[in-house]
Amino acid sequence: MKRLVAFDLDGTLAESKQMLTREMADLLARLLDIVDAAVISGGDWPQFRHQVAERLPVGTRRRGLWLMPTTGTKLYRHAGEWREVYAERFSDAERTAILAAFDQALGKASLPPEKIWGERIEDRGSQLTFSGLGQDAPLEAKAKWDPDRSKRTALQAELQRLLPDLSIRLGGTTSIDVTRRGIDKAHGLERLAGESGIPIADMLFVGDALYPGGNDEPARRTGIDAIQVRDPDETRTVIATIIACLHGQAPLPARPSPAGG
Description:
Pfam families: PMM. The protein is of the alpha/beta class. Helix content is about 35%, strand content about 20%. The protein has 8 helices and 11 strands. About 40% of the residues are buried.
């Protein structure tokens, strides 16, 4: 029997940088009544807090939820309040080299001029993330920018040439995540196993970017059972199915709807 279900965030539990819907938050709370859950994704803690932590219904078993921002290079647990357990941050020299590589790669790519919403490169401490249309771009524009991933795949290849000792992964709909080599979702899941005491064999991973080069793909390297989803709608179906299977298809009690942090 699985004891923990781990999820990607953007494109899996929620649309890019959007809060969990009330239905998704309720499903996650119901899942936590049965097993532990983890969320591991490229966003930093403020994004996790806004998208996930503040959306959980009253009475959620928060102590069973493992929140792992910046591709698992940070871990937050709830003990009266959300607290940082660890963080693996870049040095100043590493950060400078990454920013220089982005400048060079973008110059070589010669992307056509287009409207940008907010900063294109976000420093998340243990990860630097490029967003093709900026951090605040609307969902509709993001969905149209790189649907076949060709723009980001070219940038990824150039960044990998310039930063051979780092990990370069595609994420979301417009993002590229840069972390230290070996810092990916496989690393995060292995740290999760050590922190939680739950072996990988007793975990399940759900993500939308398990394709080659996607930032969920490394999870497969751990041997974890994984489910590819297309979007949050499909994830809701997956969670409901997991709940039914683990709960023996017994009806679950209703939960109060107001959200709490």
